[in-house]
């Protein structure tokens, strides 16, 4: 049985042929006739079929078809329990030609009680010489397993087969991950192929429809950012005179009001100051309004700590339902237009991400009482987010109708919801009077509703008149492409200076500033026009602009300026970046105030000849803001991070290392940030350096050495600004392995062959000129971007261990890191964190670099499917006493290309996220494969689930220590068998100082603090790891650098014995002592038997047997002779093991007041679907015990790690310093929070 389906379809057709296109839709929506003018003709309907007229020779033109009426009819049929499929056949033209066919799908909103999968199919059939493309959306049958399939098919194969991709509807929303476009290209006699178009935007137009039964979408999206929502004020009530500024004809004031219910009733609103929209006060842009009884609007705006509200009371003498075949703005209702950041400079409403066009309709059905209101969000890339979070209600009134709409601030990019905020706003009021043969609209401001340059303004609460005037004047200048307020204007009588041919000392011509009030931790920016002599504006040895800032406490900070170019960003053809330069290059200074009060500053310019110019002192005031400051190593627990205000930070994200530039760099990065923020992530790592000119790369072979790409620098400016709006923190990597790696040396800009200073790849760490180039580039980057709290850290090198310098002379790499880290610490005024990284595996890393005080935190790269390996590497990093952040993490290449087959649920990502956090890292893994994994698998919900669990945890407050627990069966028969341990000859210091065999697991202890400890649970988690192997070589006096003792502690529940095979000995022979519980039990002389130094020989052919009493026995083998001794793998006879459930893996963090644990079924790994039997055995009837727990009662929350929800809460009491937990039965994994102890 198929589930019901809501669907809307937007189809974009384009053809390069000269023949006519015909379009027939198989779904008959019952409309007799309608038509609308398209880009190349008329799109109309007659006789139940869709037709395109006058469309010959479409060329590059396109016609978009989207009908709300069709969608509503599909919904009606679905409500009646009918199975509905919407499909379309497109006749592309004669066979033998090459055509391109594009499809765009509208967003789909629907509420179900559980997850549902919907199938999207597109087919290409060859029939009678024509190529026919079909697209349809339909529900999958109950019980049918969703799957994804890629294929390349011949014409005959494609005729028989449908390739299927999956949309997923998850608890009330449809969200397509990645780029929701696909390209179908076919020609007669050629194979068919299709693929992702990753450089394309989501659909430009999205229609979202409210359900007719008024059910709200059951979807609670995670916020874009962690806004504080703190109202900053001096505690006084605004004066009565302040609201008077709202009397300006271009300003409306939104009042702060709590307790508003979105129900269509305005009784709970403050109705004292409406914005009137009438034929007298507003501009008519469509139709005709007879009088105020025909159309009159009163608009009210309000806000509280979480939401933004708009209410409309409309006088309308004829309330109407939807206009058949029309667009949403043609219904009774209004369109709300927003420019939240006041930064739009184009008449294209959607050039900026904070611009929104939101239509609210009184009713989408013929019903009038009760009506069926709807929200439509157009063309903005975050439409689905806004729609999902929106509330809407409407009611008829005696003179017309009322509409209420609300959305949370965290769904509206650019709107923080702070009192005193000023935004751009416009409204068009719509009146559909089809009975009178007309459709009318009134516009509040301007004559074109989609042009932000004509918008009015809305303030959140009253704003001081002078400040409001400054903000509005600034906004108007920005809209005209004038980005700053001029603080120091040119002297009109001064002679004009030709800067291009200027000779002489530096001269300041003008300085433009952001104003005289800046929020704390916000950017203060100075645009500087100056004349000076220099050959290279990027070379700080040639010319340097600086600013000296004196803080309120008298502290002085000097920051460098930088050379830059302004660009205007807009959306171009097929989702490409339009980055047009504005004006000429100029100089700029950026600074972030960290104290409240007045800052004074002066600008200083120095040229290479030692000539100097200074400006007169100026000042600005830093005022309170909601920002939390910069990220620091926590003084409460140096293994975690926190903001300047003390609030905790735990990173969660993925790697976004584009290796080469594309036409859509900014748009692609915006997509990554938006997706990550929407699902609760907050961190992206990015590249500043590749061989292929990456999007944010300053210096490359294209620019030349010590010359920088101002366009790429602007792209990172834009990225940081987007990050600020979304609560994302970026971690740029300064140097790339490939530039110092022999395999890629031919393409390195540092190679002497390419004009660089180095003869060999290892020279990049020692060559004076190369190091100076890196320092200069760092200085520019710090000058330009160190202002930003959203810059998480400077990452010096990516996987430096693969460079030739690391392999040939590691000390030069250490010296380079010490030099560059110190350089950053010297220059960065905000002291951003500094780190570096190595490849996957402990053997790739250098502890001496991690130990440097200049390196603030460690980073772990890991490509493995073993959660235990990830955990152990995180634990090991604790010895450095620094935070550890997860770095690159992923399935190895090329196996990742098949992940869609064997890891459909995103298990690899899920396990990595929970393992990294529970191992004590300060930041989670940065998963590597977005195009191969995240997008096609659509598994971002794993970020959301963990973020919901992590929210509210003050990570540095609890002094967490990693723990691992054994899950014991609470009941069951004990079985006995021989326990075999492996042994491997080694010629090195062993990894462990002793081994403990307890409850069926062999532990290696790598650091021993208390020799009396015999229980592995009492050893610090970072100091032990599970193993199956001991060293197979025991060294004598001839090898003093190696270990002479082998210590194994064995726990048994009855008397037994341990047998050691003695295999080989050095030619000089040796002797050993056997100690049981520190007492010598036996001594053996072991002479050489074969005259060879072969540790793999079996010349001795004897077995050493050691008795074991019930309980705990410490067995020590000590080499008291000269030569080495070879050991085989020992075996423990009659060993009890069945009491331990090895299938369950339990570890986490134990802390003061809070402990967190992850219970993982070891069977649930990413490649389990490759096994013959991929099913999971549920884990039940087990218990775990925490030790060293304070006495008292604890609250235990059991969490669903896939939904991020608590599914059970219980209490537990300690007994003798231990706390025993019995987890609920689980199949994959669950987590828990243990809070307490509580005072009875």
Short characterization:
With 1240 residues, this protein is mainly beta. The chain is 13% helix and 35% strand.
Question: What characteristics describe this protein?
Answer:
eight-stranded parallel β-sheet; Immunoglobulin-like; disordered N terminus; mainly beta; single chain; 6 domains; globular; 15 helices
Mean pLDDT: 74
- Which spans of ≥5 residues are poorly predicted at pLDDT below 50? 1-79, 81-247, 482-494
Shape: globular
CATH class of the largest domain: Alpha Beta
Q: State the helical fraction.
A: 10-25%
Q: Count the helices. How many?
A: 15
The rounded Rg comes to: 35 Å
Strand content: 35-45%
CATH homologous superfamily (4th level) name of the largest domain: Glycosidases
Structural classification: mainly beta
End-to-end Cα distance, whole Å, is 54 Å
Query: What is the CATH third-level topology name of the largest domain?
Result: TIM Barrel
Can you summarize the main beta sheet? 13 strands, mixed
Number of strands: 72
Q: What CATH architecture of the largest domain would you give? A: Alpha-Beta Barrel
Count of discrete structural domains: 6
Describe the structure in your own words.
The chain is mainly beta. The chain folds into six domains: 11-196, no CATH class; 242-476, Immunoglobulin-like (Sandwich), CATH 2.60.40; 485-623, Immunoglobulin-like (Sandwich); 631-947, Alpha-Beta Barrel (TIM Barrel), CATH 3.20.20; 974-1136, Jelly Rolls, CATH 2.60.120; 1141-1238, Immunoglobulin-like (Sandwich), CATH 2.60.40. It is built from 15 helices and 72 strands. The longest helix is centred in the middle third of the chain and has 18 residues, at 768-785. The radius of gyration is 35 Å and the shape is globular.
């Amino acid at each position: 049985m198929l589930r019901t389906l809501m669907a809307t379809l937007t189809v974009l057709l384009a053809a390069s042929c000269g023949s006519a296109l015909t379009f027939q839709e198989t779904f008959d929506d019952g409309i007799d006739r309608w038509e609308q003018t398209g880009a190349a003709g008329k799109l109309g309907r007659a006789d139940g079929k869709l037709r395109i007229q006058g469309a010959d020779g479409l060329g590059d033109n396109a016609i978009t078809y989207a009908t709300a009426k069709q969608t509503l009819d599909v919904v009606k049929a679905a409500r009646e329990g009918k199975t509905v499929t919407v499909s379309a056949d497109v006749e592309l033209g004669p066979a033998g030609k090459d055509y391109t066919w594009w499809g765009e799908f509208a967003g789909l909103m629907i509420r179900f009680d559980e997850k549902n999968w919907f199938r999207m199919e597109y087919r290409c059939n060859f029939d009678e010489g024509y190529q026919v493309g079909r697209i349809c959306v339909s529900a999958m049958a109950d019980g049918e397993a969703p799957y994804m399939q890629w294929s390349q098919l011949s014409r005959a194969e494609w005729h028989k087969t449908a390739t299927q991709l999956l949309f997923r509807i998850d608890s009330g929303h449809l969200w397509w991950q990645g780029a929701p476009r696909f390209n179908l290209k076919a020609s007669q006699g050629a194979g068919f192929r299709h693929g992702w178009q990753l450089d394309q935007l989501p659909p430009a137009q999205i229609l979202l429809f409210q359900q007719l039964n008024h059910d709200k979408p059951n979807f609670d999206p995670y916020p874009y950012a962690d806004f504080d929502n703190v109202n900053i004020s001096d505690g006084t009530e605004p004066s009565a005179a302040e609201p008077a500024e709202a009397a300006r004809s271009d300003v409306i004031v939104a009042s702060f009001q709590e307790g508003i219910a979105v129900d269509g009733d305005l009784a709970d609103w403050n109705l004292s100051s409406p914005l009137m929209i009438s034929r007298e006060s507003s501009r008519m842009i469509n139709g005709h309004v007879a009088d105020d009884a025909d159309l009159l609007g009163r608009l009210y705006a309000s806000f509280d700590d979480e939401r933004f509200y708009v209410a409309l009371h409309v006088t309308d003498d004829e309330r109407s339902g939807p206009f058949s075949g029309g667009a949403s703005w043609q219904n009774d209702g209004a369109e709300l237009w927003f420019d939240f950041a006041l930064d739009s400079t184009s008449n294209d409403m959607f050039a900026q991400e904070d611009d929104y066009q939101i239509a609210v309709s009184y009713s989408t059905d013929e019903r009038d009482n009760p009506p069926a209101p709807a929200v439509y969000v157009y063309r903005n890339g975050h439409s689905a987010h806004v729609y999902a979070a929106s509330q809407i209600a409407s009611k008829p009134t005696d003179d017309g109708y009322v509409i209420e709409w609300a959305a949370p601030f965290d769904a509206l990019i650019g709107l923080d919801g702070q009192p005193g905020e000023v935004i751009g706003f416009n409204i068009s009021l719509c009146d559909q009077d089809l009975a009178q043969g007309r459709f009318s609209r009134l516009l509040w401001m301007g004559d074109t509703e989609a042009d932000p340059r004509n918008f009015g303004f809305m303030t959140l609460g009253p704003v001081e008149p002078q400040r409001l005037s400054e903000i509005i004047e600034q906004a108007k200048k920005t809209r005209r492409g004038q980005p700053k307020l001029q603080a120091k204007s040119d002297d009109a009588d001064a002679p004009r200076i030709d800067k291009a041919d200027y000779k002489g000392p530096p001269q300041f011509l003008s300085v433009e500033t952001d104003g005289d009030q800046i929020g704390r931790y916000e950017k203060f920016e100075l645009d500087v026009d100056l004349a000076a002599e220099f050959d290279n504006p990027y070379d700080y040895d040639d010319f340097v602009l600086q600013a000296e800032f004196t803080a309120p406490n008298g502290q002085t900070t000097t920051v460098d300026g930088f050379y830059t170019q302004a660009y205007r960003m807009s959306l171009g053809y097929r989702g490409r970046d339009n980055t047009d330069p504005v004006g000429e290059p100029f100089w700029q200074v950026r600074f972030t105030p960290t104290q409240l009060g007045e800052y004074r500053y002066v600008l200083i310019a120095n040229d290479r000849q030692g000539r100097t110019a200074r400006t007169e002192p100026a000042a600005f005031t830093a005022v309170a803001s909601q920002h939390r400051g910069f990220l620091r190593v926590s003084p409460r627990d140096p293994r975690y991070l926190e903001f300047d205000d003390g609030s905790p930070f735990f990173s969660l994200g993925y790697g976004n290392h584009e290796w080469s530039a594309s036409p859509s760099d900014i748009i692609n990065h915006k997509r990554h940030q938006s997706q990550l923020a929407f699902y609760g992530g907050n961190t992206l790592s990015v590249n500043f350096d590749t061989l292929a000119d990456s999007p944010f790369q300053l210096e490359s072979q294209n620019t030349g050495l010590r010359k920088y790409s101002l366009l790429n620098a602007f792209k990172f400016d834009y990225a940081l600004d987007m990050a600020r709006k979304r609560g994302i923190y970026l971690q740029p990597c300064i140097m790339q392995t490939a530039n110092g790696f022999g395999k890629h040396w031919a393409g390195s800009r540092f190679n002497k062959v390419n004009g660089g200073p180095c003869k060999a790849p290892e020279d990049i760490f020692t060559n004076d000129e190369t190091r100076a180039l890196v320092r200069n580039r760092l200085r520019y980057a710090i000058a330009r971007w160190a202002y930003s709290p959203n810059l998480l850290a400077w990452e010096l090198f990516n996987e430096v261990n693969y460079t030739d310098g690391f392999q040939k002379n590691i000390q030069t790499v250490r010296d380079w890191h010490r030099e560059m880290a110190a350089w950053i610490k010297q220059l960065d005024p905000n002291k951003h964190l500094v780190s570096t990284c190595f490849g996957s595996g402990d053997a790739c890393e250098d502890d001496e670099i991690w130990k440097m005080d200049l390196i603030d935190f460690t980073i772990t790269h890991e490509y493995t499917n073993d959660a235990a390996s990830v955990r152990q590497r995180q634990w090991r990093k604790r010895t450095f006493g620094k935070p550890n952040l997860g770095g690159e993490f992923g399935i190895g290449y090329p196996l990742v290309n098949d992940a869609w087959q064997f890891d459909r649920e995103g298990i690899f990502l899920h396990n990595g996220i929970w393992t990294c956090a529970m191992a004590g890292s300060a930041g989670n893994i940065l998963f590597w494969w977005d195009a191969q994994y995240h997008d096609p698998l659509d598994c971002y919900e794993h970020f959301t689930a963990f973020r919901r669990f992590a929210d509210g945890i003050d990570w540095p407050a609890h002094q967490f220590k990693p723990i691992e627990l054994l899950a014991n069966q609470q009941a069951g028969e004990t079985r006995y068998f021989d326990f075999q341990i492996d042994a491997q000859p080694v010629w090195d210091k062993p990894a462990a100082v002793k081994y403990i065999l307890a409850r069926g697991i062999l532990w290696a202890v790598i650091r021993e603090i208390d020799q009396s400890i015999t229980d592995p649970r009492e050893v610090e988690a970072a100091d032990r790891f599970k193993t199956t192997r001991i060293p197979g070589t025991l060294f004598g006096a001839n090898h003093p650098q190696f270990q002479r003792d082998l210590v194994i502690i064995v726990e048994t529940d009855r008397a037994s014995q341990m047998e050691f095979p003695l295999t080989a000995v050095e030619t000089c022979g040796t002797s050993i002592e056997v100690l049981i519980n520190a007492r010598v039990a036996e001594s053996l002389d072991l002479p050489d038997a074969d005259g060879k130094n072969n540790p793999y020989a079996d010349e001795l052919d004897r077995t050493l047997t050691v008795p074991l009493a019930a309980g705990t026995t410490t067995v020590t083998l000590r080499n008291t002779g000269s030569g080495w001794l070879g050991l085989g793998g020992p075996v423990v006879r009659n060993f009890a093991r069945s009491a331990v459930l090895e299938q369950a893996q339990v570890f986490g963090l134990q802390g003061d007041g809070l402990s967190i644990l992850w219970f993982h079924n070891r069977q649930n790994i990413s490649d389990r679907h490759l096994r013959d039997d991929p099913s999971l055995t549920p884990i039940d009837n087990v218990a775990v015990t925490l030790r060293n727990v304070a006495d008292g009662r604890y609250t235990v929350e059991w969490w669903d790690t896939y939904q991020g929800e608590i599914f059970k809460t219980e209490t537990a009491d300690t007994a003798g310093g231990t706390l025993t937990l019995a987890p609920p039965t689980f199949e994959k994994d669950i987590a828990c929070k243990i809070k307490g102890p509580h005072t009875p």
